[in-house]
Every structure is written in C-alpha cells, then in structure tokens.
Amino acid sequence: ALDRVFPGQRSFLLSRSNFAGSGKLGGHWLGDNAASWNHLRWAIPAILEFGLFGIPYVGADICGFMDDTTEELCRRWMQVGAFYPFARNHNNIDTTPQDPAFFGADSLLVNSSRRYLNIRYQLLPYLYSLFYRAHTRGDTVARPLLHEFFSEEATWDVDEQFLWGPALLITPVLQPGVEVISAYIPDAVWYEYES
C-alpha cells in the first residue's frame, strides 16, 4: 500500500502486529513496556528473538512506555537503547516526561545520552551495512553471542549482552545502583571502542 501511495519513495512501516519474515517490509516495536528494571532486561532477549524471526528492525520503548521512570533507570536504558536497531524514547501521555533534558541540562542522563547517541551516529555506516546484509542475505543485526561464538558453550545462554553484527559487543548495566558488572568476553581479539 505504501508503495502505491508513494511510488519510488522509501517508506517506513512500524507495527506491533508481525509475522515471521515481515521484517523485509517493516519494523517492529516491542509494545507497551513498563519503566522497570525487569522490562529493561527483557528487552534484550526480545530484540534478539525478533532478529531470528526475520525482523531485524526492532526495539523497545527506551525508558519504558508505562509508569514513571527514574533518572538512573532512564540513563541505563538510554545507554543500551542507543544500540537497539530501532531506538526511540517514547512514553504514555499520562506519565512523567522522560526526555533526557527533563532531568536537567547538566544531568548524568543528558551527558550519558549525548555520549551514547553520538556513538550510534558515528556507527551508522556500520549499522546501515548490517541492515543491508539483513535485507539481502537474511543476517541478523542485533545478534546473540552464540551466533558468532557457537563453539563456546558459555555463550549459549548469554541474554544480557549482544552483538551488532560480528564486531561490536554491547554489555549494558541492567541493575540499579551498579557501577561494575561481570561480562562474558568471547575468545577473540577485542578493542575498547572509545580508546
């Protein structure tokens, strides 16, 4: 229908009602999640599953759709959400605003959001290449560690980390009050992105 209405133009289709393979034509958002640490954690396996369903353009409502968020929860969510294939901060009209600027121009949330969204924008050529490969070959964009490191049995149940394609490992903070986390680092040569 979009091709008929806008012939020769690139369309944008986002739905919550999908079936396996519909990712060739549109994206998916995970629905009305809550502003909770549990929903922050569950978004990662859901995004990975939709990639396996052939829907690579997928993401959760960053900072949660329902309920009021906190500065810490929203900051951690913006950090990982910058690496969702489909990244947007979106919430219900009946909840407290959660745009990072709402928490103050010099807040940790604003500075952290700026930092991670800048990384996303720096990596857009890589992300677009991943989407091209997903479109032409059926590859995943966000993928579980086991896709690239299948011979390492420890990767088989990692669901709190993910990869962008084969090369970028994302290991977010998913618990309140945490500054240092344990992560599984697969057997490969890795470089810290910012240095």
What brief labels describe this structure?
195 residues, 8 strands, 10% strand, globular
General description of the model:
The chain is an alpha/beta fold and 195 residues long. It contains six helices and eight strands. Helix 2 links the parallel strand 2 and strand 3. The model has no long low-confidence stretch (mean pLDDT 93).
- Computed Rg: 17 Å
> What fraction of residues sit in β-strands?
5-15%
How many β-strands, per DSSP? 8
Largest sheet: 3 strands, parallel
Residue windows where pLDDT falls under 50 for at least 5 positions? none
Structural class: alpha/beta
Oligomer state of the chains in this structure: single chain
Question: What general outline do the C-alpha atoms trace?
Answer: globular
Mean pLDDT: 93
How many helices? Answer: 6
How many angstroms does the end-to-end distance come to? 46 Å
Strands of the widest sheet, in order across it, are: 1-2-3
Report the helical percentage.
Answer: 25-40%
Give the topology string: H per helix, E per strand.
HEEHEEHEHHEHEE
